[in-house]
Each structure stands twice: as structure tokens, then as C-alpha cells.
Amino acid sequence: MRASGIVLMALLGLTGCQQAEKKAPHTINETMALVMEPNAEAIWGMMSKAYNDKGDALDPAKLSNDDWKKIGDASALMNERAQELIDHARDIEVTAKGTPIMGEQAVGQVGPAGKDWDAVNAKTIEGRIRANPDQFVTKARLLLDATARLKQAAASKNVAVLYAVGSEMDEVCDGCHEPFWGTDEPPPFPKSTN
Known about the structure:
mainly alpha; 0% strand; globular
């Protein structure tokens, strides 16, 4: 009886330690800057390498086993973070305290491109996510699904799926940026002052 009580206490203690060691989710800023953007670029780089001489399709012979591994690894990292965005949609922070997001320094400045391109700060983005977490989850699921398909494409060395999903990845990303950060579309070309 005593031995089982000691084992039970030890297990409870370990469980408590494991729970205490759980880290807060990564911020959205960390996720975008350190995982999503560089890994999407890596996937697109592998796609660019694989284009055939006409530039209208991917040639599987141009991708080595190492290239496929890079695509799989990049997709897996993106997939893990997409799941984290879903799991923490209601409590995730946009950025760490004191860490600016891209463009935040321009908040409040009137630009020539128009209101659609006004800069926003982390508080605004967080407010938009908190106001509509279900939409945020829906958008993150699109990313989760796309990265899962890319992982499968890498595992099976399927250039057709790599091309289809990789070519649409920017739209998947923009689909989430639009409602929460603002448009990713470039502003109109400035009119000449001459």
C-alpha cells in the first residue's frame, strides 16, 4: 500500500512539473516572421528550381531527395504553427510586449495610397482577432490543410500537388492577413509629381 502511494505521489508530482513547464504559445509575430515567411519562401524556392524549361510545369527530375526533404520539413514546421494558431485563437498574443510589428511605426500617418493601406498596430490586430476568433480559426485551418497537403506531396514526391498547393499558398496567407492585418495588395503606383 505504501509503495503504491509513493508511486502515485511521484506521478502526480511529475504531471505537475510537466504542466508548469508548458510554454505559452508563440506570438503571431514570431510565427509569421520566424516560421511562416521563411518556410514559405523555402518551398517557393524549391518550386522555382523545379520549373521546366518552358516554365509552365514542374519537372520532378529537378528536385533531389534533399529538396523534397526541405519541402517536407518546411511544410511540417508551418503545419505545427498553424495548429498552434488554431489551438490558441482566443488567447494568442500578436507580439511580445515592446516588440513592434512590421509597419507599426507608420500608424496614424496619412499616406498617399488611401485608407485601405493604413498601417495598424498589434492592439488593433488583436482586437480584430478577439472580435472574430471563429473567422481566425477558419483561416488558420486553410493554412493547416494546405501545409498538410504540402507535407504529403513531399513524402510522395508529387509535383502536381506541390505546384497546385504551393501556387495558392500566397492567397491562403493573404486570406488571413486581409481581415486581421489589412490588405496585402500593393497600393496603386504613385502618380508622378512632374
